[in-house]
Amino acid sequence: MDRQLLSAIAHRDHPIAAPVSAANLDRLLRRAALPEGARVLDLGCGEGEWSLRALELVPSSVADGVDISPHAVSAAERSAAARGLSDRLSLHVTSAAEFSATEPYDLVICLGSTHAFGGLTETMDAAAKFVRPGGLALVGEGFWDRPPAPEIAEAFGAYPDLAGTVTTAESGGWLTVYGHVSDLAEWDEYEWSWTGTLARWSADNPGPDGEQALAVMREHREMWLNGYRGVLGFVSLLLRRV
């Protein structure tokens, strides 16, 4: 079964697609204080919840959403249509690393998709190419809240701690102007939604696809509950280009 389809199914009940509550998503976007006519770029947009909410907060703004998954982009198209935002959101099925634009943006969003560029440093370098002078980036990234077990560190890679993550984000000419560290309740809501949606889908779709979805869910839940829960943190940073 297509892994992109599995991911799209898993995120159906949590389109924010990160351990961030709707209230804190709003808080982060409001802190951006986007101007009238703002241009927003969402790299790794998934179902488009971040860019769609930005469009709702600034009715004169426009956005581009970029994702490699056609399943996620289709979900974003449906959500934009349901919210009357289709004419202000342009969606692109392509790699975030290969996307190009002719005009700069006021805000570049990359929440939980830094892997598309190879890491946080590379993501900030990419954002710098898209944002206008003095513009903003809203980037979400994992960090180790406490030292992980060796097998968890091997599975996730060499994340720094929170201080190291902020330092890395700022190293290429950026200044952090706001941030949000996800709490355990936000993590649990995200993970229970992810695993629960896959579990329900697998029960409703018996056969090889359902069995694969169930196996993926169980593997993910095991690593979460007995591995990174309370160990892996997530920070959303609002940074200004300086």
From TrEMBL:
Primary enzyme class = transferase
What are the protein's UniProt keywords? Methyltransferase, Transferase
Q: Does the keyword Transcription apply?
A: no
Report the superkingdom from the record. Bacteria
Which GO molecular function entries does the Swiss-Prot or TrEMBL record give?
methyltransferase activity
- In the Enzyme Commission scheme, what number(s) does this protein have? 2.1.1.-
Q: Which residues cross the membrane?
A: none
Q: Name one GO biological process term.
A: methylation
Write the protein's name: SAM-dependent methyltransferase
